[in-house]
Specification:
It is a single chain. The protein contains 13 helices and no strands. By secondary structure, the chain is an all-alpha fold. The chain has 2 domains: about 1-205, Growth Hormone, Chain: A, CATH 1.20.1250.20; about 210-415, Growth Hormone, Chain: A, CATH 1.20.1250.20.
Length: about 425
């Protein structure tokens, strides 16, 4: 029987392998989004056509979130983790043949299919990495689990921002095809690291009935509905409208667009990781209640509306966008942190995987609607129209949270 020191050493090694794999994927995920968005915009695609390129990415993310926990429990999270990385490599290679000679009617559905593989890859990797961390940390070490999950989540958001900048930089320096090949080569190295991860991690004998995937408590349903509109409110102006506006209206370069969005996402990740500590220190000292999320969602409602009004009044668009997005990011990060706590506080121990999967399915649904509307509304009404839509979405999220009860028991605040 292995000694406790040996077990701890193996656990640390496994955690490092899983984290590096997730980091590698996250960087390419952010880079690919920026690469596709900017490249196809330069080919003359309209904002709506660019948004449609991400349609299957979000749709298949919804499906994968719903069934990801079941797949991982049946086949083990090592298989799903590295299957996700392999699918991302496939998606990158599938995108290499597309160029300006392709007809629109062929390029759009082809890229949508390639992005579908990327969407499946993203949520397989996310589900697997978070599940794997739970498996490598002893069950009696709950504080350590919270600590390392927080590190993974915060670093993931920061590295996605790095990916935004990397995608725009690779496009500007190496061109579209070479950028895709460089990212695929990097992921091949990550894929090889899976040889050192034990097989069968997370594989269980118990079977989950299909109806359990949809049968949720009232609290989870309400919180998931609020999450849907919350992330729809972010993506309706952030995903397509904002980068296209910065590039085509403000005449920013690829590197400037990618760098700015990278800094925003990195800052968002840092604030999100600090939000639990700040709420505990400057709040009542107890975990968030239903009133906490109502306050932060209500506050967020005013921000996109204020940015839209400032632009309509003729304020300098560059300064208005930069300042407004900074404030939006801080308040949004607090919203996300409180949401992440509440989904655990409302969940029984034996329902964590199913409820979290359902919750993130709603998250993906909001991103899907936000992405499509980002292109459509920007094409029809510009960035101001997207901002007003964002304000309406946040208002709906705030109204939905009015029905939330307080958690039944106090749990440790986590991000």
């Amino acid at each position: 029987m292995d000694s406790p020191a040996k077990i701890a050493q193996v656990s640390i090694r496994n955690y490092a392998i899983v984290t590096v794999a997730y980091w590698g994927f996250t960087i390419t995920d952010g880079a690919l989004r920026m690469l596709v968005l900017l490249y196809f915009h330069t080919l003359g695609y309209t904002p709506l056509e660019v948004a449609m390129l991400f349609l299957f990415y979000e749709i298949f993310g919804i499906v994968t979130n719903l069934f990801g926990g079941w797949i991982g429990s049946r086949f083990g999270v090592k298989l799903t983790l590295y299957s996700g990385i392999a699918l991302q490599i496939l998606a990158l290679l599938l995108l290499t043949p597309v160029n300006e000679t392709w007809a629109l009617t062929l390029a759009v559905p082809y890229v949508m299919v390639a992005q579908a593989f990327s969407g499946i890859a993203k949520d397989l990797t996310k589900m697997s990495s978070k599940s794997a961390i739970r498996l490598v940390i002893p069950q009696n070490a709950q504080s350590a689990l919270f600590k390392w999950v927080a590190i993974l989540t915060g670093s993931k958001n920061a590295l996605k921002g790095v990916g935004f900048f990397l995608g725009s930089l690779l496009l500007g320096v190496f061109g579209y095809v070479n950028a895709l090949l460089i990212m695929a080569a990097g992921l091949m190295v990550v894929l090889v690291s899976g040889l050192w991860l034990p097989s069968g991690m997370g594989k269980v004998k118990a079977k989950v009935k299909f109806r359990q995937l949809f049968s949720k408590t009232r609290e989870i349903n309400i919180l998931s509905a609020a999450r849907f509109f919350l992330f729809g409110a972010r993506d309706v102006w952030f995903v397509v409208a904002l980068p296209v506006f910065l590039y085509s209206v403000l005449n920013w370069s690829f590197e400037q667009v990618g760098g700015f969005l990278a800094i925003w996402v990195i800052g968002y990740g840092l604030v999100q990781s600090l939000a639990p500590t700040l709420l505990r220190r400057f709040g009542s000292g107890r975990p968030p209640q239903a009133s906490t999320i109502r306050f932060w969602t209500g506050l967020l409602t005013a921000i996109p509306a204020a940015i839209a009004i400032a632009l309509q009044l003729g304020r300098p668009p560059g300064q208005t966008i930069v300042l407004g997005l900074m404030v939006f990011g801080v308040v949004f990060a607090f919203n996300s942190a409180v949401h992440s706590y509440l989904v655990l506080a409302y969940t029984e121990d034996d329902q964590v995987a199913l409820n979290v999967g359902f919750y993130y399915m709603a998250n993906s649904g909001g991103r899907l609607v936000g992405t499509v509307l980002s292109g459509l509304i920007f094409q029809m009404s510009g960035l101001v129209g997207c901002l007003w839509t964002s304000a309406v979405f946040v208002l709906l999220a705030a109204l939905i949270t009015l029905k939330l009860p307080n958690p039944r028991s106090a749990q440790e605040l986590v991000s």
